[in-house]
Write a structure and sequence with these properties.
The protein is α+β, with helices and mostly antiparallel strands and 79 residues long. It is 27% helix and 25% strand. Strands 1-2-3-4 form a four-stranded antiparallel beta sheet. Strand 1 (2-6) and strand 2 form a beta hairpin.
Length: 79
Amino acid sequence: MVLRLAYPDRVVIVEGGEVLVFDGRLHSAPLEDVLRSAHGSSAPLPPEVREVAGDVVRALTGQSRVRGGSRNPLKGLAC
């Protein structure tokens, strides 16, 4: 499964157990660490990945809100 989230200033791709964030530079982290971080546990993540951790969990689980979530990935996109 591949998950893609588009933000006005970055793109997030979840594939093969890894989360990739491209904002002009490429940042990555294991999906397991991103999930732990989104649920409040400490995990060694780049700040750019930590910012989207809540959105990744919401997209994967269909939840509307996860503690510590970040901004809306659809905000600012034309529909």
